[in-house]
Amino acid sequence: MWTAWRQHILKTGTTWMFVAITLTHILCARISEVLCLKASDFRWSARSVTIAALKRQPQVNKTLMTAILPTLRALKKKGKTVKRKRSCGVRGDVVFKDTWVWPTGQQYLFPDRTGTSHVKKDIVCHAIKKLRESFPVHGSEKIRSHSGRHSMINMLKKHNVPADVGMSFARISHKRTYDLYGQLNQLQAGQALNANKGLKRSLQDMYS
């Protein structure tokens, strides 16, 4: 569902929103943490990013996983541009480019209209509320501003990443809280069980 949601944002939302939501997933970060990011927070040679202090938690340097570096570097180099149409009355539909570019220095990745601060969380939450009205969601699945972080925690659990590692990456202090995040659905649980060779051998030995 996460991939479909990102594509829905790219198609019907804005490019900066698409980038911001993507970063919540690949950095396993809250949307409020992502909106505070500046270009200078990314240290490419060290392959890390500084996440600001939040919710009584101190500032932290997160490792940029090797698998997501190409995506980040492509955004830094090319930004994101999508051609869109806007209805302009008697002029009809006007095609324009919706472009987001990676900033430099102390500039925010997602500046507000004044350019002196960053976009606020409430704006993102309002945009998500509007976008999900046209996004098909099945069963009990829900899309919220922190769904990207939840989805990443879900992936960590699916691939058997140790809980203490996942908690550190997600900036979660309590095991009970971590257990409530990113819970696997039955399909993912079944896939993980089928991929466990030791379990498979034990069951085959038992019932052969």
Automatic annotation (TrEMBL):
Pfam (any one): Phage_integrase
Organism in which the protein naturally occurs: Symbiodinium pilosum (Dinoflagellate)
GO molecular function annotations of the record: DNA binding
GO BP: DNA integration; DNA recombination
Top-level taxonomy: Eukaryota, Sar, Alveolata, Dinophyceae, Suessiales
UniProt KW Protease keyword: no
Domain Tyr recombinase: 21-165
Keyword Metal-binding recorded: no
Superkingdom of origin: Eukaryota
Keywords: DNA recombination
Protein name: Tyr recombinase domain-containing protein
